[in-house]
Fold:
Amino acid sequence: MHGYGLTPQQPTTPRPSQATLTAVRVILVVVTVLSCGLLGWAAMLRLAIVTRRPRDWILLVVVALLNGGLFVFIMATPDDPDDMSDAAAVVLLLWLVGVLAGVITYYLYAEIRHYNSLGSTPTPTLPSPYAATAPVHPAPLPYQQQHVVQPRPQPNPYTVPTPPPTPTPAPQRLDQVRAELDELSDYLRKENKEGEGR
Structure:
């Protein structure tokens, strides 16, 4: 009757940020292109580790074998390009382009699809194995909107209403300042005329 309950679920690692994923994809594609496809197995290895699908592990082995065969074919060709036949050059070119395009295309397609599928499904949460020991409370009723009538504010009977402020006439101080400024300007004009006459 008292079993072990539900087994705890292993914590899932959070999805890396979009910038990190883009940087890793760019680096792996650039490494694959700059190595003419010979390091395409690196992108496929990352894909196999991330997705953990048997198909991706099988494709990793296929790409590694194709790259090994391509390396052997390159080593078997003569050093002098004039000694290489046209058929060998076409096979080498098609092999390089095929591995390069296939690895890049599948890697980007599968990894983008993998991370998009992770982002769109929420992680299910399992109930705690100790939930049965916790007290059970009835579920709350759904929220119902209630109409609240707000009372009108009543004036305070103990306060005296203040009359609105009346506009005050311009103070006498303003007239005094004007008179002083006029007197000062007259004095400065007089000084200026005397200075010019000298």
Notes: Helices lie at 18-34, 40-51, 54-76, 86-120, 172-197. The longest helix spans residues 86-120. The two ends are 123 Å apart (CA to CA).
